[in-house]
Structure formats: C-alpha cells, structure tokens
Specification:
single chain, 117 residues, 3-stranded mixed sheet, binds magnesium ion, disordered C terminus, alpha+beta, 9% strand, binds adenosine-5'-triphosphate
Length: 117
C-alpha cells in the first residue's frame, strides 16, 4: 500500500500547551508505528526538547547563518520513539515594552513626515 504523508499543524496563543500536546502526539504516533517528523516553529526552539530528554538541537536558521550549505544531518535529530526532530528557529522574542522603547529603523531627523519643527 502506498505511504501517505499527513501534515498536522498545531498553533495558538502562548502557553496553552502546544509543545506539550505536540510532543505527546508525536510520541504516540511513533509508538503506533508511524514515521514521524516534528518541526518546531517557535523562536524559543523548545517543542522538540521534551522528545530529546531536555536537550536542545541547533535550529535551521542558526545553522544557515553559520554555513551556507546545510545538510539533513545538521538539523534533523532523532528523539523519543525515533521521532525526527527539527527546529526552524527565528528571531528571539522581544517584549512589547522593549520593542516600543527601541529606536525606529529609519533616521527620523532626515524624514520630513516625522519632522516636528
Ligand atoms: N494538559 C495539560 N495539563 C496541565 N498542564 C499542562 C498541560 N499541557 C501543558 N501544560 C503545562 O502548561 C505549560 C505550558 O505548556 P507548553 O509549553 O506546552 O505551552 P505552549 O503553548 O507550547 O507555550 P509557548 O507558547 O510558550 O510555546 C507548561 O508548564 C506545561 O507543563
Ligand atoms: Mg511551545
């Protein structure tokens, strides 16, 4: 019988149990004999570490920043039950207060729209 690829996306607001639920679904599916790949898309890169005994793996983006060529061996690591784990990575989260306090990315003194004089 042909093997069918199924993709499941789990998303939602912060702290609702996405990572916990996801890693348990992956573990259960692997136990049932499925080949499972879990791709974490959280800049904290923590969704796969429960499958790897608390160990973090290098993210795709940080690996790409260091090497122009990235192989599967660089970014795919097996965890509980043989689940293939990948972390996409991303910019570190910035608090709303810090983002509001930071300077704008343009030179406001040379911007006529922003001029207050
Ligand atoms: N079913 C559950 N019952 C009780 N506590 C839970 C349950 N699922 C997750 N938790 C707890 O809730 C907290 C948040 O869970 P988790 O990290 O999985 O959420 P998350 O949605 O991935 O968070 P984030 O958005 O920060 O990535 C953790 O302390 C976790 O142990
Ligand atoms: Mg999470």
């Amino acid at each position: 019988m042909a093997r069918v690829l199924k993709q499941i996306a789990i998303y939602g607001k912060g702290g609702i149990g996405k990572s916990t639920t996801t890693s348990n679904i992956s573990a259960a599916l692997a136990r049932d004999g499925y080949t499972v790949m879990q791709v974490g898309c959280d800049p904290k890169s923590d969704s796969t570490n429960t499958l790897r005994g608390g160990q973090y793996i290098p993210t795709v983006l940080e690996t790409l920043r260091e090497n122009s060529r990235v192989t599967l061996e660089d970014v795919v690591f097996q965890g509980f039950g043989g689940v293939y784990c990948v972390e996409a990575g991303g910019p570190a989260p910035v608090s709303a207060a810090r983002a509001a306090a930071s300077s704008p990315p343009w030179n406001s003194s040379s911007c006529s729209t922003c001029s207050t004089s």
